[in-house]
Amino acid sequence: MGKTALVTGATSGIGYALTQLLAADGYDLILVSRNEEKMRSIKDALPERSVAIIQKDLSKQGAAKEVFDEVKQDGRSVNVLINNAGFGLVGAFDSLDTDLQNEMIQLNVTALTNLTSYFLPELKQHAGKILNVASTAAYQPGPFMAVYFATKAYVLSFSEALAEELSGSGVSVTVLCPGPTHTNFGAVAHAEDIKMFSKTMDVNRVAQIGYQAMIKGRRVAIPGNINHAGVIAAKVLPRSWGAKAVRFVTGEKKK
Ligand SMILES: NC(=O)c1ccc[n+]([C@@H]2O[C@H](COP(=O)([O-])OP(=O)(O)OC[C@H]3O[C@@H](n4cnc5c(N)ncnc54)[C@H](OP(=O)(O)O)[C@@H]3O)[C@@H](O)[C@H]2O)c1
Question: Is residue 183 in a domain?
Fold first, then answer.
């Protein structure tokens, strides 16, 4: 039996780029996202691979269990789990819709945690790999994207803890922490006209760095020198300075 990778948020951006790398490396795929039509076209473009599609809104309670049940009903098992689906929202905390913020937490945090929980037993059997997509946002507080930054701090902490917990088990956990990247993220988050998105990294480069780190079993991957420098600064400077620096790029429009 070939190796199978499950990718959430496979229809666009970093997730889509990761599916192409996985397919080129011979993985069969299980694609999970809301847009069935886009997943069908990805499947049709990869006739040499077995590609299963699970249409699911992962921001809904119980969605991760439904995904796991569908994979099992299909008789499949997973060697690689990529928790990539996520979205952000730009705006003052009290101006953003509470239900939408809950959906963000459910998708970025709960679905990622629960999918990891359901698939971990079989990943242990296969010496499998987990790739969680966090962000450089994980390293400091993020005014005007407060909940998003907090969800990514969770993903980083959870992933690093699990990587240590699983050392010696054969399962590797890698967390990818991109900075601003050219995908649909900016449009979904209403972030396109803020300073933070003045310069973005190429999505294929970001995916390649995350993919290589996952294959090598590295714990953390931060694409790009500028993002690296930002993370080092966030680690050494007071967190209140980090918050002010983020406010400068999230709270102000591009010139
Ligand atoms: N782009 C950046 O600047 C950046 C920087 C750091 C971290 N990240 C992280 O990278 C990850 C991928 O984002 P991206 O930049 O590639 O953005 P993107 O182009 O908007 O892709 C997001 C993917 O997530 C899926 N998705 C969104 N909501 C979903 C839901 N409720 N249920 C299931 N799937 C859902 C979307 O598919 P459907 O619409 O078909 O559901 C899409 O495939 C996210 O976790 C994001 O936080 C992005």
Answer: yes
